[in-house]
Design a protein that fits this description.
Helices cover 0% and strands 72% of the residues. By secondary structure, the protein is mainly β. It has one domain (2-109). The strands form 2 sheets. Strands 3, 4, 5, 6, 7 and 8 form a 6-stranded antiparallel beta sheet that branches. It has a two-stranded antiparallel sheet with strand order 1-2. A hairpin with a 4-residue loop joins strand 5 and strand 6 (71-82). It is elongated. It starts with a strand and ends in a 7-residue tail after the last strand.
């Protein structure tokens, strides 16, 4: 998304480690841990102000994969972006003396699989 000449984006670089492989409910489940570095930039609306913020941070997550059927059963991830740069819409320079943090949480879970 481009707003006032600034793009919103997220770049994630992750490493994965297989923690556990088990048989469950007639399928092979693979449990994977994820460690990530994240670079984030985006717009946020706060009351009457539109702010653009960006920075780098770290995070991690976990995956549960049904290896038998090739499906992601669940995925949870959390990112912390400490001390992001914050710029008010219409301005070029960051807001001085502002303390900010960004926390991003995502969760996905396969609830139902429909046959085609």
């Amino acid at each position: 998304m481009d707003m006032m000449g600034r793009d919103s984006q997220i770049k994630i670089k992750s490493t994965y480690e297989v923690k556990n492989i088990k048989n469950a409910k007639g399928r092979v489940e693979v449990h994977i841990d994820e460690d990530s570095e994240v670079e984030y930039a985006g717009w946020i609306e706060v009351s009457a102000a539109s702010l653009y913020y960006g920075g780098k941070g770290t995070g991690g997550g976990s995956w549960v994969i049904d290896a038998t059927r090739g499906l992601v059963l669940s995925h949870r991830v959390h990112f912390d972006i400490n001390k992001p740069v914050v710029i008010k819409a219409g301005h070029k320079e960051p807001i001085a003396n502002i303390v900010a943090e960004v926390k991003i949480d995502m969760e996905r879970k396969l609830e139902k699989l429909e046959k085609e």
